[in-house]
Amino acid sequence: MTGRVLSLTVGTSAGAGWSRSAMAGRWPRGWAVSGARRAAWSIARDRQPADRGVPGVPVPGGYGLRWPAGRGVVLGALGALAAAALVFSASQLLPPSPRRVLGSWGGVLPGRPLTRDAHVVLVGVVYLALLVLVICWTLLVVNAVRKRIAASVVWCVAAVWAAPFVAGPPLFSADIFSYVAQGVMLDRGIDPYRFGPAALGSSPLLSAITPVWRHSTSPYGPIAVGLEALVSGVGTLPAVIALRALAVLGVVVAAMAAARLAAPRPESAVVALFAANPVVLLYLVSAAHWEAVLLAVLLLGVLCWRRAHYSIALLLIISAGGIKAPVLLALPVLVIARAMAAVAGRTRVGTVGRDVLVAAVGLCVISLLLPDGLGWLPALRTPSRIATMATPAVAAADAVRATAGWFGARMAAGGLIGMSRAAFAAGGLLGGVWVLATMRRRDPLRTIGFLLLLTAVCGPVLHAWYLLWGLAALVPAAAGGAVRTRTLLLVGCGTYTFTELPSARGALPPQLMISLAVVCVVTAAAVTAGGALATWRDRPGSPTLPSSMFGAAST
User: Fold this and answer.
1) Interatomic CA distance for residues 535 and 9, integer angstroms
2) 3-class SS of residue 404
3) Is 29 exposed, middle or buried (CB count within 10 Å of its CB: 0-12, 13-18, 19+)?
């Protein structure tokens, strides 16, 4: 018992006083309850097996694995119910055009139009279910970071949460139909970098595409368009299923690569931050955006670079850039980092020369995959055709325009948005230069994450899944002691996950719809910020006493 008492009180003067009094057979006043709790925790800790994600790290809470497993079961069940309600309600709100392509999807999609009252109820259920899912995710992250739940349990929870999104139809974005259309165009000899999907003529597939993208050229790289052409030959519905399966595989591979990059940080925290992330579930798993495959290839490339397979790493990064161009910003980071690691000046010159040569050869090979392999570069401006309030540049322009309106001044929205986008682009460029100039202070993976995050936030348009360019690279750091990075990831994903949800489309007044969205976003921001603060005082490897669902340390 003496050894157990001493193991509880190392490094604290008050604990040292309590241990001396306990060994002498005396209990100081006020320490009866907390002393008993600490003694029980010490005995339970000695009986605990090591966390499977981090060898040698004890799993806190209760006797055996009942309390940590119980938390996983509760959070898994609540999150699964919220996910199922979210998928079912959003499926009922799907417009008629995608239903012509998807059919009944196993009886999930409705066969007749909804009434106005049903529409209002389903929209409310979508927002409420997503808010519950964000709360469950925050609790899962906090408990995983504080080592309350084993990695295997977190993997199971993430799988249970993802199951409704995998089984349901593509939701929250119609981009997957654009992917299939671009593949069909390439099969028919139509250049997707010069023509939009409207070149296919009238068809159910064209009607499923969002109208603004029907005449837009493809902004995706040759690898993405080549994969689209590969799967589109089997038919529209099988192509949609194949792209969904490819996205799910990408999420799993990306989570596993992030866990390897985070070692020796707890694997449970990495899986909770990425695989169970609501933005990942909604926009990578359900909507099957190309970011799932992109992040898998990017993180595998960084993992190869860290294991000294430099040429393979550069080729993987270039392959990721062949899906979406912004990821190519990782190339200069890795080249500079390897040059700084070299000792002699001549060695540095040779290292940089070899890396640049490998990168150039890789880019040339990718450009030869399609007949118009370089045509995607002019098409990179395609996403800026729309302006969303979730984009910081557009929100700033709208704020300036509204402020000027209060003083009676009228400003053209288009010109103001253009100036705001230019200002944000300049700020992002300066921020990127500063990140590169100070990259000695941080790990190259974090440098890549901050660069890609700046690119997304300061870009002409920002969707929720764009944030994952940088945040996925920051997950390994957020799983450890980088509490500011973890706060950024939690609050950013928790709030932006609401930006692409279906609206009431006239069933509710616009003011009421905006109020509902604002309440959910503010609540999600408060919950995720509270979850981040609950881990603010933590340090990797320091055991704490769980006193709430957040697992706050007892003081």
Assistant:
1) 21
2) helix
3) exposed
Residues ≥6 apart with Cβ < 8 Å to 489: 273, 471, 474, 475, 478
> Distance between CA atoms of 486 and 11, rounded to whole angstroms?
27
State the burial class of residue 371 (Cβ atoms within 10 Å of its Cβ: 0-12, 13-18, 19+).
Answer: exposed
Kindly give the parts of the chain with pLDDT less than 50. 1-68, 539-555
Query: Within this chain, do residues 131 and 279 fall inside the same structural domain, yes or no?
Result: yes
**CA 212 → CA 94, 173, 197, 217, 257, distances in Å?**
18, 13, 11, 11, 36
Contact (CB, 8 A) for 390 and 517: no
Q: Bridge partners of 50?
A: 58
Rounded distance between C-alpha atoms, residue 258 and residue 158, angstroms: 15
pLDDT per residue as tens digits for the range 346-372 = 667 777 888 888 888 888 888 888 777
Q: Are 454 and 470 in contact (CB under 8 A)?
A: yes
Q: 299 lies in a domain? A: yes
Task: Take residue 430 and report the two structure tokens written for it.
Answer: 């300066």
Query: Is residue 20 domain-shared with residue 129, that is, in the same domain?
Result: no
In this structure, the number of other CB atoms found within 10 A of the CB of residue 441 comes to: 9
> Considering its fold, how many domains does the chain have in total?
2
The answer to whether residue 145 sits within a structural domain is yes
At what angle are helices 468-478 and 267-274 packed, to 10 degrees? 160
**Using one digit for the tens of pLDDT, what is the confidence trace for 230-256?**
998 888 899 999 999 999 999 999 999
- Residue type present at position 127: Y
SS3 content of the chain, % helix, strand, coil (to 5): 70, 0, 30
The model's pTM: 0.81
Q: Which value, in Å, is the radius of gyration of the alpha carbons in the chain? A: 26
Of the candidates 394, 145, 158, the residue with the CA atom closest to the CA atom of residue 284: 158
Q: How far is CA 9 from CA 13, 16, 154, 485, 542, in A?
A: 8, 6, 30, 31, 12
Select from 101, 276, 105, 103 the least CA-distant residue to 178: 101
The CA distance from 178 to 59, in Å, is 46
CA 445 distance to own-chain centroid = 16
Residues paired with 58 in a beta bridge: 50
Q: Which residues contact 242 (CB under 8 A, 6 or more apart)?
A: 231, 234
- The range of the structural domain enclosing residue 36 comes to 2-47
Length of the chain as a residue count: 555
Burial class (CB in 10 A: 0-12, 13-18, 19+), 444: buried
Contact 458, 393 (CB under 8 A): yes
